[in-house]
Amino acid sequence: MPTPLRRSFDYLPVVGAQTPVVGSRVKVPFGRRQVIGILVEITDTSKLSTGQLKPALECLDTEPLFSAELFNALLWASDYYKHPIGDTFATALPKLIRTGSPIKLPKVIQYQSVTDGKAINSQLARSPRQRKLVEYLKQNGAMSAAQIRQAGFDRVLLDRLEEKGLVTTHAAEHSIEELRPGPVVTASPIRPNHDQVKAIAAVKPELGFQCSLLNGVTGSGKTEVYMQVMAKVLQEGKQCLILIPEIGLTPQNLRRFEQRFNCPVVAMHSAMTDRDRLLAWRATRTGDAPIVIGTRSAIFLPMAKPGIIIVDEEHDSSFKQQDGLRYSARDFAIKRAQLENIPIILGSATPSLETLNNALDGKFQHLKLSRRAGHASAPKMSLIDMSSDPVNQGISEALSVKIKKHLQQGNQVLLFINRRGYAPMLQCDQCGWRCECNQCNASMTVHAKPPSLRCHHCEARAKIPARCPICQSEKIGTVGTGTQKLEKFLNRHYKHIPVLRIDRDSTRGREAFAQLTDKINKGEPSILLGTQMLAKGHHFPDVTLVAILDADIGLFSPDFRGQEHMIQTIVQVAGRAGRANKPGEVVIQTQYREHPGVSGLMTQSYEQCAKALLKDRQSSHMPPYTHLCLLRIDSTVAERGTQFARYCFEASKRLKQHLQQIELIGPLPAPMERKAGRYRFQLQIKSASRIQLHNFLQQLAVTLEGGKIPPQVRWSMDVDAQEMI
Ligand code: ADP
Ligand code: ZN
Ligand code: ZN
């Protein structure tokens, strides 16, 4: 049952119905409600007496929703992450299935524009909004009313157009493409180089489960390796599942697979409608979709004929879910591949320390692509010392000279600054007051369009005050630089050069990101300015200079993964330079040029830097050399949170008496003590023994669940926690 309880519930079979199958949906009475659950086991005993048992009301499926392998993988996830089994299943299913819709959807009405330009001009001259909708439909083809609404059009507009006979309707089955005639796999236009040939040959789908790390520098042609391995799998009539960090940002990835293979490529991501998600889920489950590409939750898609799983950019933090079932899609993918007995490839230019360690230990096959593919060469790296060079809006004199030079040569420049908004802080010059969020221990970020204060940790928004609330002074100003402020500065400074800002705010809306990349791909001299989003696998052939404006943000992070993430980001962003035939240059600005975390990048490869970090982790007993679970506790009432955290600690200490290898640290307030109005605490539970850790967590979960939880207090276990804040 989709409840927060870590248990299942017993029911009698539906009266007069056939025995249902394990893994199918059953509607049952639950308290005063009727709820849909998943049948996990059929048994002839129960702790309840026959009189207490209630019969189930209805079986929704005649067949299981999952294969035995996926079903078992989900049971594993529930146990491994100590998460309620019902909610684990709920997380793995599309919403419509969860809420009882049949696997085969009824037909939906689709709307289509049947007008020509003339009719639009004559009939809709005075209805600009209806006109916009007609044009939208002309561009996008037939669509359901829900899709049209999602695109931002009012239902009324559609009705008006239907009355005027400008759109027609028809009932459509489903929108996943049919298989196309001809062979799925055609010859690759690219001749793989020596490293690629070796990597392709090393992945052997016929041998069953095998985990490989494809460790290839940026631009080394990892995607080509994926595609040639996928060709082997597709030729056997099997399916490929590819996980990527973000689909909206990398449409070119999707296109590359579509161009190479003569078959439907199904996408699965959060921006899709519930109906489209169900269709994708079904197409994967029936095998109609030979290739599926999706973000994190796509790892739960059932596959009729599983052939291979690929996790691209495996180090990316978006693969970890930060609430509910706090799973790592990468780790679940490995478990799933093992149970399905198929190969899995983890690809990255900057593998996570966990994965790298597994490869160095020989647990994963370590495949390397050490050079850029084709004619591209590795970019030249240099440091700029910001403590000695004059700096204007985060740009040093030396960098400014370089920017001008690259633009003059007709190339593009990419500036990386990991702070969106106008400025990270608002401050009173008179008394030093800083504007903090009422709900969080964090400064409010200043935004320019529209002028406002926003908290990046919760949804809070506020007006920019005219005077200081403490001393009433009108001298309040912004501190620091965000992407919007930098954009304004660059626009003033480089009058005839387009400045393209790429962050969460500038890429909201359906087509915004595609429009930006179209502009970039025109290849005209321009300045690209953006956040983390720029680090994610883009291919900008005309960028020759990449500058990291402030490399130091990760150096003193409270999170033990801070430095790892910092070097990954720097190496990934740097990898955007000189990806085609033009040589590239990377400049890193820092205040701490002596810090090994920064200087190491100048002389060493990512792998060498990562190995140094691994040594630190080993000596400080941190993952991957030990296993870590964060017990997270939060409450709207600080005192209750503190008390419950204390109680959890005492309970843990008692349980620990029989388990030598458990280490407890805490309970401590979280580095971000208050977030979205909740006071947060954490207890670190560490063990070098995975088995002991899990025995311990199992017992602790039972203890905490059996005890009383004060009102307004929540607790959760974050096994293999990724973020410590
Ligand atoms: P990665 O994913 O490792 O960053 P990509 O797969 O995007 O790299 O490849 C970078 C570019 O190199 C692409 O344009 C790709 O078509 C090209 N490429 C890949 N392999 C080869 C090859 N063997 N010869 C020539 N070009 C190649
Ligand atoms: Zn003041
Ligand atoms: Zn906040």
Care to describe what's here?
There is one protein chain. With 725 residues, the protein is an alpha/beta fold. It folds into 5 domains: 25-98, GIY-YIG endonuclease; 108-172; 194-369, Rossmann fold (3-Layer(aba) Sandwich); 380-423 and 480-617, P-loop containing nucleotide triphosphate hydrolases (Rossmann fold), CATH 3.40.50.300; 627-719, Ribosomal protein S10 (Alpha-Beta Plaits). Helix content is 32%, strand content 22%. Helix 8 (194-202) runs parallel beside helix 9 (222-235). The chain starts with 24 loop residues before the first strand and ends in a 6-residue tail after the last strand. One zinc ion binds at residues 428, 430-431, 433, 468, 470-471, 473. One zinc ion (ZN) binds next to loops.
